[in-house]
Amino acid sequence: MSSSSSSAMLPHRYIPSRSAAVPTDTHAAPAPFYGTPHKFDPSFQGPVRRRSCTDVLCCLIFIIVILTYVALGIVAWLHGDPKKVLYPTDSYGQFCGQTGTSNEQKPILFYFNILKCTSPAILIDLQCPTTQMCVSRCPDRFATYTDMQLQHKLSRSYWDYYRQFCKPGFNDPNKPVSQVLRDEDCPSMIVPSRPILQRCLPEFITLNGTVMVANRTRFKDALETAHSVTELQHATKGITGLVDTKDLSMKIVEDYAKSWAWILVGLLLSLVVSLIFILLLRLTAGLLLWTTIITILLLLTYGMLFCWVQLNQLRDMPGSDVSIVEVGLQSDLQVYLQLSQTWIILFVSLAASEASILLMLIFLRKRVRVAIALLREASRAMAHIPSTLFFPVVTFLLVTICISYWAVTAVYLASSGEPVYKVMSPDISCPHANSTCDPETFNRTDVSSSPSCLGSQCLFAFYGGETSYHRHLFLFQVSNLLIFLWLLNFSLALEQCTLAGAFASYYWARRKPRDIPPCPLFSSFSRAVRFHTGSLAFGALIISVVQLVRILLEYLEQKLRGMNNSVSRFIIICLKCCFWCLERFIRYLNRNAYIMVAIYGKNLCTSAREAFFLLMRNMVRVAVLDRVTDFLLFLGKVLIAGGVGMVAFLFLTKRIPVLQEEVPDLNYYWVPLLTVIIGSYLVAHGFFSVYAMCVDTLFLCFCDDLERNDGSSQKPFLMSLELHRILGKPSLLR
Questions:
Q1: pLDDT under 50 in the chain at which residues?
Q2: Which of 97, 376, 503, 593 stands 20 to 30 A from 187 (CA)?
Q3: Is 295 helix (H, G, I), strand (E, B) or coil?
Q4: Is this model's pTM higher than 0.85 or not?
Q5: Residue 196: CA atoms inside 13 Å, Cβ hemisphere, count?
């Protein structure tokens, strides 16, 4: 008879005979540093029902912050305008392509002299010192204002074409060139362009290794000043590189539109497979987990052999020795599959993964047995409380709300403000350059007539303001991010505390399932919200502050990346490493603290201290389950995602004969394939996260059970025989 079937026939609680050997480590006096074990309490029957509110001050602060966050969203909504993000803006602060305006049929922004825009950041922020107009199309030919005046005498069509790139209302083709350029009525020249991010940028082509524009490498403007294509490249540096990205984005969106139904089918398939996996884990945990491990090892071995075969085939192929760095970013994955370096990287990665798994199985085989036993017990708990499997849906909805509110608020904050106009002068010696101005009164001021500021204009610069609200927009964005992280971590903490309370009700029930309270999940959820919102908010705030610091360090590193300050970068990297370790430790401690909060109803600090000391008193057992159990669950998630991904690959590459006619015509089959694989992993992770929380809760309850009780008839263990047999023997844990 198997161990699972024999344990199922045991009484609901484990009461060994008086002569039964009790593990010696359960009676050992703990060191003072590790705290004092819980004393025996005959009335203790699981999660405390009569409890009071904990961390009330933090709860009040949390509620005030939420109300303030709502107020911030309302203020941002009143001041912001997402159209400022969606539409480019001309020199007069008018949106290009906005419905119901004079620019409705002019969705593209045109720069009079793009050579003045020497930085890509200037183009994106619309702070280029040249006139910007909304046009219906980009120019498709080379022309200068001087050439237009000469050809206009032969045919008016030349002026009609050139005029669409001039200021609205200007209709004097005979105006002297010097005055036109001074007043910036028309551009000095136009070059063949195409719309990129709704902005007209030069259309570069490469012929025989030479970059040209309309088969030219040099050209002249209206003042006969010679320019080269290199100058245009420098002016549009960084922007022209987005052409392929935009085309790729459009094709990806098109692929999603064609394959979204099949993506949903793949995600539903992963949902069904995850449920079946959990059901089988309930019935045959050991067999299923060992089968999973062996299957993954076989798949890794097959992947290594396949990579080796591909390497041998590419060995004599010309061009296969090119490095991936030289190829750069390519949307066609077939390009990378023709490189030997790609298969070498895959081979080494697969070999390292298989070696890691084999070493873990060799040196931790006893611990794997212990982890399987605890997973089997977790399966029994989830079988008695099946509603816990679907609680991640609640968390998903809360997280979706938090992300949506943060994103909308961030967009409205970014688009807040009134149009700010600044003096743009072609002469860098102009003392009034970059000073604010009023476009309606600018021509009547002394700035435009100043000798050092000739040709200056009052042009739209950006959206902002001088009020206290506009001066603190950056602070509002940081606050928006911090509160978002706080709410996000609170949602995860609420899930962990709720699940812990439900599974603790199962463990501490003396007669299972008879003594399990009705609706344990709902009862645990109501206790967490009613009594422990402050504790959950306190723990979420701590980890949110650490995450915010990590994000700011990433921001600083990006700022220092272009500087040759190796000392500062080294300090930033060290700080990032330290805060990453701190976040991992706090996350682990919070997780166990929430379990203690759910069971005993104490505040966060007390629960964290008791959880820490309880784990320290059972360090050997913690070492058993800390990584091994997570590793086994990770293999299960990988197997589910990989299996569903393999089916999706066979379908999208038309290798399933029955469904060949149903495969949509895609630009890149890897778009839905990666979506299905990542989505399947997340679906499996949602189910297995419940499993992981169940394992952690049962483990803490087990350790507490060993300290509260001694296995006698007066103080019987509430653990199952299998748990006591495996976890109670120190020899199996070494």
A1: 1-33, 40, 119-126, 238-244, 731-734
A2: 97
A3: helix
A4: no
A5: 24
